[in-house]
């Protein structure tokens, strides 16, 4: 079956649905990151009022806010300010995993069918095969690459069909360094600790370099594998000029 097995009308419907999803995400980003309709200070005060349960409450609240595209570094820094570098790192990591799972779930519900319909059966089968083999490490690698918003990537992963368990495990592994970095920076502000800030910056630099290198290697490997797959794919009789005519 070819990649063009979806009728033209259906492809336009799928494209329109995906465009609507993107518009909603961009609108959410504008509201929380530019217009700042959510007062983070008020959120911290509300969480602090819960007493001993504050770390668990902050995990749940941050996971929801992260899925709503509140910038993760702001939430992580708040965790460091409230709970310190040690407890705060675990709180940030828990919230990060929660955000990844929630965003991937919403992305799958909103865009998976349309993504598959737009790509067609053959491309979808290739993506499913790639996810089965490399989905977990794709999530890990994305978390290491600087400059790619984790939550947006989680929505895309969900729309592409990455299982939630891969999102949870991959985000836990891949987000650990940056969870420490942003939480430690927040804690260093509260504790006025320059060594802690320098340590966090060093970890961030090492992680960024390693992530960029790994992304480059992974991209080259993916291109090589795709090229090998295309070269070994059998051709149809109409594509082979030496094939006998059936006319």
Question: Can you characterise this structure?
Answer:
Belongs to the TVP38/TMEM64 family. With 247 residues, the protein is mainly alpha-helical. It has one domain. It has eight helices and no strands. The mean pLDDT is 83.
Task: State the helix count.
Answer: 8
Query: In whole angstroms, how far apart are the ends?
Result: 23 Å
> Rounded to an integer, what's the Rg over CA atoms?
22 Å
Order of helices and strands: HHHHHHHH
Shape: globular
Topology:
Elements: H1 8-34, H2 40-48, H3 54-67, H4 72-119, H5 121-144, H6 150-160, H7 164-191, H8 194-232
Put the structure in a nutshell.
With about 250 residues, the chain is mainly alpha-helical.
List keywords for this structure.
transmembrane, VTT_dom, single chain, mainly alpha, 247 residues, 0% strand, TMEM64, membrane, 8 helices, transmembrane helix, globular
